Amino acid sequence: MQIYKITQDSLTEADFDKFSTDEEGKYWMILSPEELIQRNDCFRFSYQTLNDCTNDTDMSKLEVYESYSFGILNIIHDGEDGFAVEELDFYLSKRFLLFVSEKDLSIFKEIREDIHIKGALSLSLEKILYNLIDKMTSRDNSVLLNIESEISDVEVDVIEGKTKDYINDIVSLKNRLLFLKRHYEPLLGTVEDLTENENEVLSSKSIAYFKILFNRIDRLNRKVGNLRDYVTQVRESYQAQLDLNLNNTMKLFTVITAIFLPLTLIVGWYGMNFKNMPELDWQYGYIFVIAMSISTLLISLWFFKKKNLM
Length: 310
What we know:
Layout (H helix, E strand, L loop, with lengths): L1 E6 L2 E4 L2 H6 L4 E6 L1 H6 L1 H4 L3 H8 L6 E4 L4 E11 L2 E11 L3 E5 L5 H13 L6 H14 L1 H20 L7 H30 L7 H67 L7 H4 L3 H22 L4
Parallel strand pairs: 3-7
Antiparallel strand pairs: 1-2, 1-3, 4-5, 5-6, 6-7
Helix pairs in contact: 6-9, 7-9, 8-9, 9-11
């Protein structure tokens, strides 16, 4: 459990007893789900929100109650097989901002360091929540640029006709972008609901901060959509390249078949062995058939070369 009392220019550590007796002060708290349930007699949060805190939720969301707002945020970071997710739940009221997490996330340390280094001028509960969502999304643009670079590399290789199987690369890119799409759309809705401020837990000045976040997340979401279209175009180009290679292979086999078809006819013709075939008794008959076969082969090769078929 971590509890900090917030004033306009300071952030000081406190304890739960001080929070429960101080009805005028504003507090930032970080509790585990178990600690929250043990102390819910003080908060009187909805049972549904407690259930959400103790169970993993795939999507961000915001639920508005009379005296507080309950939200779920999914913090993404790079994992071994793509992206990994850490869930963070929060309660926001006019009096406190409460984060619920199983562990002390690194993002909490970053916020505390920012307050210590940059100062705490006009510090508020809304600014801490804004700072957290801001940090969640501040690096995402570079992540999308890296994905765009990967797509571009695949596109260049496909255009150059390299023979590598790019299906796995394309599927991996599509899956990562789909993951981000499913992340940004709920997060966009969560921030939009915060800006509506139905229960008026946000001050009028802080709404502008969340509108900035909304615009940033909207741009990221549209960027993901553009990259998904880009991947689709690369996949179509790759499929077209595969079709072209297949067509070239079939074309080669067709030319080979067309070249040897007259030779097969000659073999079949002279394989009939009729008694009255003059070439059978002719001393130059064998040489004649060889010369005719070679001539037929050369004429066929010349014809297909002239028609640019080989």
